[in-house]
């Protein structure tokens, strides 16, 4: 749906037509550029049903029916679909939001993107609330309500009567939804989890020290488990603000120029950056099970790092055990994981260089260029690239939650006292 307005710029005081794409939303902050002077004019919209939709624009609204501007100045934006910053009504590509993605991606990729995007939004809206409730009962230790939700709302056909069974059910339910939200294009979660599971089970069969380590560390990971769930819940609650990060995974090498020219007219950088930063830090706290499994399989002990150290880690920083690994800077933790075949994608999902750029104190969303910039990185990145980084952190955190699950299952009291 398109709403039309005749606006007066609060800066240059010139009038212009604004064509604004409207969709149901719990709350969206956006901006539009004055076509005369380029001033970013902020606005907001809310309303999950079109009949109760509300739009506020921080300038004088001369008319809400938008009579044609005498000099033909028109700006067309949709906060839910990227477009070109300098576009007029219909040309060039990116000017008319409903056609932008089809023009940029082509028929086949556009259809795949729309399918994944729709499934992700639906999973967050319709399925996550039940999973959230289930996981909250799991964290509370409310067995009766956990079983009721699992059976009546998730269709579980059996009763999880033990602690480790409830842990497994809770994490499987959470993983089913976060996997859909992450999408299938360009993802590596299944491969990472599969490789970890094989290494972990092989290590448990052969080395008692491995299981003892996972039991001990799993017992002390209750607080981390709660923090990870809380942060994943925050990601899903604000999914609408970063879901367009999925778009970058559908552009091939030849489509980068078109992708770089697109702007998403959202004014939510501070909130989304908080998600990114908190998610990044938590994900790095969950890397230890991967390293422990690799150490045990290769050298017989989760604490034995041997001589397999990344080149970038200085000799005086190389850990002698998992406790020392926990104290490493995040960049070094990621390097240890990324050197294992099959786990290299963590270097991209948790890109420490990008983390420093986005997390810099001066980082901000320049609404006149549509880029995230900082004193450290004046050229920065497009807002869409930033949202792609946010999606990467969500994928990493949701993947590592399933890895952390192994230690929480191992620490279950069902298996008797710790040795």
From TrEMBL:
Residues 309-320 have a biased composition (Basic and acidic residues). Residues 301-320 are annotated as: Disordered. This is Uncharacterized protein.
């Amino acid at each position: 749906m398109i709403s039309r307005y005749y606006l007066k710029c609060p800066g240059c005081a010139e009038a212009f037509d604004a064509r604004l794409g409207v969709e149901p939303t719990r709350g969206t902050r956006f901006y539009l550029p004055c076509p005369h002077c380029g001033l970013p004019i902020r606005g907001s919209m809310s309303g999950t049903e079109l009949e109760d939709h509300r739009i506020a624009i921080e300038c004088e609204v001369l008319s809400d029916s938008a009579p044609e501007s005498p000099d033909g100045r028109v700006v067309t934006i949709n906060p839910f679909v990227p477009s070109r910053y300098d576009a007029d009504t219909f040309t060039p590509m990116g000017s008319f939001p409903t056609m932008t993605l089809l023009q940029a991606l082509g028929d086949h990729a556009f259809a795949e993107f729309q399918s994944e995007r729709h499934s992700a939004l639906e999973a967050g809206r319709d399925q996550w609330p039940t999973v959230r409730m289930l996981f909250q009962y799991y964290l509370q230790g409310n067995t009766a309500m956990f079983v009721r939700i699992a059976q009546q709302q998730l269709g579980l056909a059996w009763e999880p009567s033990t602690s480790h069974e409830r842990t497994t059910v809770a994490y499987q339910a959470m993983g089913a939804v976060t996997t859909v939200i992450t999408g299938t294009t360009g993802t590596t979660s299944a491969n990472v989890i599969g490789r970890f599971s094989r290494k972990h089970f092989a290590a448990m069969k052969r080395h008692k020290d491995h299981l003892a380590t996972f039991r001990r560390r799993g017992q002390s990971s209750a607080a981390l488990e709660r923090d990870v769930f809380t942060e994943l819940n925050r990601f899903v609650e604000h999914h609408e603000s970063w879901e367009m990060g999925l778009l970058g995974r559908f552009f091939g090498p030849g489509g980068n120029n078109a992708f770089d020219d697109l702007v998403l007219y959202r004014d939510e950088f501070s909130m989304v950056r908080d998600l990114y930063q908190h998610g990044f830090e938590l994900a790095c706290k969950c890397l230890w099970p991967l390293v422990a499994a690799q150490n045990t399989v290769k050298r017989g002990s989760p604490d034995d790092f041997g001589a397999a150290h990344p080149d970038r880690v200085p000799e005086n920083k190389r850990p002698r055990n998992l406790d020392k690994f926990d104290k490493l800077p995040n960049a070094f933790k990621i390097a240890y994981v990324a050197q294992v075949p099959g786990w290299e994608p963590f270097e991209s999902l948790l890109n420490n260089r990008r983390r420093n750029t986005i997390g810099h104190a001066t980082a901000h969303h320049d609404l006149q260029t549509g880029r995230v910039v900082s004193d450290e990185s004046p050229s920065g990145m497009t807002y869409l690239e930033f949202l792609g980084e946010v999606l990467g952190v969500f994928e990493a955190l949701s993947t590592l939650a399933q890895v952390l699950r192994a230690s929480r299952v191992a620490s279950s009291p069902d298996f008797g006292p710790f040795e």
